[in-house]
Specification:
4-stranded antiparallel sheet, 8 helices, alpha/beta
Amino acid sequence: PLRGGDGPQEVIPIAFYRTLLSRLFGDEPEKETQEAQEETPQQQDPGPPPPAPRELTLSQDHPVCQLWSIHAFTAKRLPQPRLCLTDPPDLPLDEQEAEKELARLQSAVTDSAGRRLALLDSGRASDLDAQVVVFISAGGMAAWLLVYPPAGQGAEVSREMLDRALKESKVSWGVDEALLESLPQDPERYFHLFLCAWGKRAVQGVDGRVVDLFPRVLERSITVDENNRVDYTTLNFFQNVTQGDVICKLIPPTEGVEGRTVTDQPIPARDGKKATLPKGRHTEISEDGMSLLASSSGHVEFSGRAFQVKPLLDIPANVDFSTGDINFLGDVCIHGDICSGFTVRAIGNITVGGVVEACTVEAGGDLVVSGGVQGDNQAVIRAQRNIFAKFIENSCVYVKDSLHADCLINCDVYCDGEVEVRSGRMTVIGGTLRAARSVSAGTVGSRAECRTEVFLGGQPCADFECHILHQEIGQLEKDLEKTERQPDSPAKLSSMSKMRMQLMINRKKLAQLDKERELAAGEQEEAEKPPLRLACSTVYPGTVLGINGVTHQFDRRYSPCTADLAGGEIRLQ
């Protein structure tokens, strides 16, 4: 039934008219009737649309629905109430915010509709103008309006009413003027929620940052090719720079952009923080203050909190009589060999492109020997970090971190980390290996049962240094005692003064080493202890393995072999 008139009127289906016309003008009634039957179900009332995800659901006895029922009885066409929170442009509401705003909206419309309904029910006002209700979000970033229709001879909604309502609600920024112009003529202007204004979110400034043109951490990874070989010439730990080269650049911060609420209240924005160029030794800041430049040529390195350019000694040929011994406060790059009888010491890294012969090499950082070491039982190799070598033969090796090589032959090795012999020949033959953590190799020992010793645990480098200092102190004490028995002379006094000074220095070194060993031992007890393990593909008879004082001598070949300590005994797998 349709509302309006004196009473209900029946709706005549459109199929009846089509059938009548087809009979009068000769159309095909069966076809028209069939089409009408197909169209009739589509014209049925589908019922109320499902609520939108952010639509306020109203019960039948809600004041808004009661108001709508009163006005719908007299109005010709009045859409049903639909209160949906429309997201402002570029200011979407998340689900939690939407739930809170819906709760506030329900409270607001219940209050406004209840007061208007009370006026109509009391009969005190038979004629009411249209009413505009403005709803502002909690953060003041959006405003919606809802219009109730007039009652009796009241005035319809107009632009003036809308402006007055917004002014009373102090909504003056980001107003949708197009909506205010078109809303009075909109057929669905009543009982609908319209987004009428939205604010501007504050844009926080972006912090400045530093763009590095040189990596702060050099990856020291070993790549094994398909033939199980390592090209040690590619292990270049130097980043060469020349004077004036740019090391890093500064990206300036951006200023924050102030936001605005719909009530024209400012929303403060934070400016980005300025970044600082990590300036270290032998670097300078450019005139515009946006770049860090190298003030001298050398090797750039990030140490601690700053970039620094360390001096780099580049030797294009061999270390021989043409160069002499080298003692350099920086990094050393040798393109040739280090010949027998010479000494190379550097506080930084040492890279050797050729072979190290029977000489002494001490690196304060990493040591890379692309050709290998042929020590002739006279070479002494030291590194405070890692050693990478093609091979090492007949040498004494001290390394604080890890040792990586293709093979070790008749070497005396002291390593406070791990020994890795897993590329190239992968063999360890003869000599003694002392490693604090583990030894991993392809083959340990030989078919000829050459005696090869592997000891795991402790602090090999520190223990050996303490042993050497004890020997030196004992020898100095004996020499001092002999010198004291000699007749007095200026030479005796000078010699005794030198020996006493050296004795004092060695004792201080020994005390410092003992303290460092105690600290390291305490840290190892607190931290998770790494496994002490020998892992190899083949171990031959003649090999002696010791783990924390427990020893085992292999009397037959094991292939493969993994050995560790369990229950006070060495366990072989």
